[in-house]
User: Fold these one by one.
Assistant:
Number 1:
Amino acid sequence: MRESRPQRLPDQPPADPPELVRGGGVAAWRQIVDGLEADIAAGRLEPGDRLPAETQLAERFGVNRHTVRRALGVLASRGLVRATQGRGTFVEARPLPYPIGPRTRFTEIVSAAGRQASGELIASGPVPADAWAADRLGIAAGDPVLRLLTLRAADGTPIALATNVFPLPRFERLEALYRETQSLTPAYAALGIRDYRRLATAISARAVSPEEAAMLDLVPGRTALVVDNVNVDEAGVRIQATRALFPADRVELKVEG
């Protein structure tokens, strides 16, 4: 259970703001970045806090909204804040410790960190296995697989955008079960798979696409960690291949033996 803390009003400034230095050679937007970054570092703005609206920040610092928008863009590119359409700009949560081991379970990892796990099924359906899926599942290219595109979050912040593939016809019921449970572990249990483990994991990194950035609430071009893995059932049969994108500043991956 997370400890509660006093809640600040959504648009209440965290402290008396420093005056901008005019004519000192440091651009106003840069001083705003430094001021808000200092508020975050000192805990005056905490993870999950909503920043004042652009108009309020402009009034606070005595600048126009364009200058504020530029400053917020820099903070977002550093992973310090996240702009959410229709809700405002929020201080990013601290990176989530994410151990990767033989039995990696997203919900358990998020819950152990004192945060609330959630998931969303974005797209699903049978497709022919491409070369990547065929290689990892040990099947022929073109064989039918079930593809699930999922978005997992911690306290409402997107953590992982994952493409998951499962061999058919064995997992033809999995889509309906996942929609019902929003988690693979109980869905597998309903199919008689009581335990499963990770056979292999590979980690790389790349910039996200504009579409991926939109789903992950990231600034386009930000770096994501790419985690490829294969899961097997109790008999060692390959049952799942996953390629997941983790925003690099939202997780701390730790590979365990």
Number 2:
Amino acid sequence: MACGSCCASSTKDTTRDPRWRRALWIALGVNAAMFAAEIIAGVAGGSKALQADALDFLGDSANYAISLGVTGMVLAWRARAALLKGATLVLLGLYVLGTSLWAVWHGDVPHAEVMGIVGVVALFANASVALMLYRFRSGDANMRSVWICSRNDAIGNIAVVLAAAGVFGTGTAWPDLVVAGVMAVLGISGGVQIIVEARRELAPAQGYAVPAE
């Protein structure tokens, strides 16, 4: 990829910005709290979509913690952290996809009311984090990965709310399972995108040619 205005190597190093670190700490706290709330509600309410969203909150909490740990480090280390985050997203997505397929034959109808209430709260939390991190979406792969995670989370929360309405209207678990599957694919796609961007930033440091787009 040709180096343009969004490349970290050609722009001011915003990873040392105290606003970036403050935003990460806030995002970490919000995601850790929502993981605890959603995993409890997901298990109690029998919702695979809520459990998928809870695992996403857990993965993001770890991602924000990693981002805080590498803030201010050289580009290569930030790119390696992004690789780890991308791989985490892919693995969580595969896990959610597998459990959703298992629930097709063995799952029960979830509680739509629990799904709806928790989904709305999670949407508000993720939308707030995504809005806070929007200014950092054009940084290096590590910073972009944080933005991608937050954006995908907000989209996933909307899907959970729609799934709750679907479960309430149909009286079946299919809307919940479909949304869980879609969220899994979204997580896998986001993880692959992060890995590709990180590998492009690592290539010059490792002496490989970076193909232009």
